[in-house]
Amino acid sequence: MAAIKHEAAIGSRADADAAFTAARCSAPRAWSNQAGDTYATHRHPYHKVLFCLSGSIVFRTDEGTIDLRAGDRLDLDPNTDHAAIVGSDGVECVEASR
User: Most buried by CB count within 10 Å: which residue of 12, 60, 64, 88?
Assistant: First the structure.
């Protein structure tokens, strides 16, 4: 499996919750950030599944840049280095691990 999987996937929070359940993920956690907020390069020891619910965010990895908008899903394999910057309208996401 590639370190990153990016696809258009959902239309609502309910769709995201159903996808988390189907993938046997942990309980989802919602978060949001203001326009221009950044996350420095970091990694997680687990497989991260993230859905963008509104706004936008750009993730940067060694494999490239991923632009997420409302409805997009991002999967990151464990220990994938990634950084992010929030788009001009802010962002609301929900994520879980598996």
Answer: 60
pTM over 0.85: yes
Give the contacts of 67 (CB within 8 A, at least 6 positions apart): 56, 58
pLDDT tens digits, one per residue of 68-84 = 999 999 999 999 999 99
Distance CA 80, CA 2 (A): 10
Whether 59 and 82 have beta carbons less than 8 Å apart is answered as: yes
Query: How is residue 22 annotated by DSSP?
Result: H
CA-to-CA dists, residue 93 to 1, 2, 33, 45, 62, angstroms:
23, 22, 9, 20, 22
Q: What are the structural domains of the chain? A: 4-97 (2.60.120.10)
Q: Cβ of 92: how many Cβ atoms within 10 Å? A: 17
Cα gap 52→8, rounded to integer Å: 10
